[in-house]
DNA sequence: CGACGCTTTGAGGTTACTCAACCAGGGTGG
DNA sequence: CCACCCTGGTTGAGTAACCTCAAAGCGTCG
């Protein structure tokens, strides 16, 4: 449950100086002044997670909020019979713990090696109360998340398997671009099963659809990613 | 586009005195003091919409935010080829225009006769800047919306048609309860097509599944609604 | 080398979709 | 008053997209 405490490497402290944080500009912290960053830095606890390590589980009491600084996190909900829906992948700069209730609404675990800043909820709440512009920024993030969620609902409810995959790949490319990692080769650190559970498909359908897209020369499948060979055609499919 | 201006009845003013607003306690306005309510009242413009009238469309410049005081609104996204996904139904007390960008992220139109308070965006933004606790309340609403959206993603991606309907009916019952309208007979002012577009199904599947539930004596279909005859069984299906 | 985890491929089945007809209620107009 | 239509809902038959089950590749690691 609190394995993140165990995972918190002592030596990680230096890397997470808020002033030099790579993820800062893409995160909520971008709204803070240098002196505010110093107070933030004092309460930030750098944590690291191994691939597949649990950050938190749904229903768990929320004692911390997290700011991802490196790696990818999957956020998901589960049904008692094992069906899983991934509601989002968190990338560097993303903020976890928005729900503001005293317990997490989703579960989260690391897809690959993840680094994050953990803020104790009490100190964090005090800071938010004192800094309206931070709250404002947080609210902007929340509404952005909501917009993404609505887009995902459209995808889950009304799109075909091929459209789902194409939208997913283009979406991931855009999201990597936002954290300064634009490339025609989209990194996909998550498994096929993760992709399936994000798109409301089975692993077999994901695999088949990707190979079909590869046969069409729309994409090229590479280790841990996909190279987009025909972005125009993909954009057309995504728009339709 | 701005038909809401046309629809704004002159006589509606009296009904929307913020101090006597029926929807207030369930809305963002619950966080305001009496004197703040008076300043709010001064900037609120009461508007009414006929069934099927448009409140706003996706991409339109957002000049107002809305607080629903009566009736039901559907919020949806469309694909160019006509496929529609309803991302939510707004009930009295719900707040529309959270997105905070200068344009709406979804379209909205009235399901039945709707009354709302419209706040000009500029005055509204000023008020939010001046009242951090209002922003806080707004943020709580946004995160609550996000939680609902994530639950809906689970439903859209991983549930069967029957589960979708059962969850929908139980969810509507709960939501009506929150605005003080709890009843074992759930009002469904929206059409079967609306329900289908909300649950990621076709109208035929919705109709068939509802009649099957009625044959099972799980529900009883009544005009403009459904009576829940076996809530325990429904809760079991929804949990599974 | 063999075991394991993950992915891909194949064959067959099922759920939900498509297309089409039918039904019921509520106007409307002859 | 009743035929007519129009909208929204239900029902039926056939289909297709996607799922399920099963087996075979294919790197990685002990």
From TrEMBL, chains A, B:
One Gene Ontology term of the molecular function aspect: DNA-binding transcription factor activity
Keyword Amino-acid biosynthesis: no
Coiled-coil spans in chain: none
Domain of life: Bacteria
The HTH crp-type domain, residue ranges: 159-232
Domain Cyclic nucleotide-binding: 28-97
SMART domains, A to Z: cNMP (SM00100), HTH_CRP (SM00419)
Transmembrane regions listed in the UniProt entry: none
Pfam families found in the cross-reference section: cNMP_binding, Crp
Cellular component terms per the entry's GO annotation: cytosol
Keywords assigned: DNA-binding, Transcription, Transcription regulation
PANTHER family hit by this protein: CRP FAMILY TRANSCRIPTIONAL REGULATORY PROTEIN, FUMARATE AND NITRATE REDUCTION REGULATORY PROTEIN
Protein name (Swiss-Prot/TrEMBL): CRP/FNR family transcriptional regulator, anaerobic regulatory protein
Protein source organism: Bosea lathyri
């Amino acid at each position: 449950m609190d394995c993140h405490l165990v995972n918190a490497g002592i030596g990680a402290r230096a890397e997470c100086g808020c002033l030099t944080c790579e993820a800062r500009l893409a995160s909520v912290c971008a709204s803070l002044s240098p002196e505010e960053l110093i107070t933030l830095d004092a309460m930030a606890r750098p944590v690291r997670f191994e691939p597949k390590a649990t950050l938190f589980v749904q229903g768990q009491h929320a004692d911390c909020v997290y700011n991802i600084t490196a790696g990818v996190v999957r956020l998901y909900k589960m049904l008692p019979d094992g069906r899983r829906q991934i509601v989002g992948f968190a990338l560097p700069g993303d903020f976890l713990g928005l729900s503001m209730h005293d317990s997490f609404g989703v579960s989260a675990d690391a897809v690959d090696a993840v680094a994050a800043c953990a803020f104790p909820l009490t100190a964090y709440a005090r800071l938010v109360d004192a800094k309206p512009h931070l709250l404002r920024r947080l609210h902007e993030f929340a509404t952005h998340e909501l917009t993404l969620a609505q887009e995902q609902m459209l995808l889950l409810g009304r799109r075909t398997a091929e459209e789902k995959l194409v939208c997913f790949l283009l979406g991931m490319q855009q999201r990597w671009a936002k954290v300064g990692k634009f490339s025609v080769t989209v990194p996909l650190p998550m498994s096929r099963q993760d992709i399936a559970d994000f798109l409301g498909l089975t692993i077999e359908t994901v695999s088949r659809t990707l190979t079909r897209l590869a046969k069409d020369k729309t994409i090229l499948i590479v280790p841990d990613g996909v190279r987009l060979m025909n972005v125009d055609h993909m954009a057309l499919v995504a728009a339709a």
